[in-house]
Amino acid sequence: MKLFYTPLRDVVHKVQVVALETGTWDRMERIPTDPYTRAPAHVAANPLSRVPTLVTDEGQSIFGGPAIYEYLDALNSGPKLYPPPGPDRWDALRHMTLGDAIFDIAALRQNELKRPRALQSDAMMENWLATIGRALDALDREATSFRGFTVGLISIACGLMYLDKLKNQGSLPLDWRQARPQLAAWYEEFTKRPSFRPRDNAIAMR
């Protein structure tokens, strides 16, 4: 298999976590990719030029994180990251949506900050921060009930890791741990797993 993805400094993409947990990490050629460069091999596999993109042994392209994670989980002979249909699965999918949204909204705010100051929307950035805050508060209320190791909980942990990265580099005025002790305690324990340690060299993006 070939995996086009973007390892970032101080943050682990959840495709790494999923691949390690499903035992597929060493079965794939990993190609660090900046999607903005529109590399021909990447665009040939995914016309959207987005990461992650997976090309299977049979040559089939799979893109969009959730599709890739589910494919890798289908190859997994161990405990599944996607629970079977029922309440646990719906929780896992809901958690995945929350975790992905935290990451995506924070990334939107980062892109806004790259625009000329006169063109930036302070109202939009405040709205994004408020949305992230509401999601964090909801997760803190729920954190003591988190169980197991699902794709949804992986998504939440990776979203929080990205918030840490942005705060540490001074571009996010948000301490997500403040007033959220349950979520912080869960995160510190959950990310002790070896799959959350960066494995590939980080690449710079625009």
Domain module count: 2
DSSP summary, beta strand count: 4
Class derived from helix and strand content: alpha+beta
On the 0 to 100 scale, the average pLDDT is: 94
How far apart, in Å, are the first and last alpha carbons?
A: 27 Å
Low-confidence stretches: none
Describe what you observe in this structure.
By secondary structure, the chain is an alpha+beta fold. The protein has two domains: 2-80, Glutaredoxin (3-Layer(aba) Sandwich), CATH 3.40.30.10; 87-190, Glutathione S-transferase Yfyf (Class Pi), Chain A, domain 2, CATH 1.20.1050. It has seven helices and four strands. A four-stranded mixed β-sheet has the order 2-1-3-4, with helices on one face. β1 (2-5), α1 (14-21) and β2 form a beta-alpha-beta unit. α4 (87-113) packs parallel to α6. The chain starts with a strand and ends in a 16-residue tail after the last helix.
Key traits:
7 helices; 2 domains; single chain; Glutathione S-transferase Yfyf (Class Pi), Chain A, domain 2; alpha+beta; four-stranded mixed beta sheet; 4 strands; 206 residues; globular; Glutaredoxin
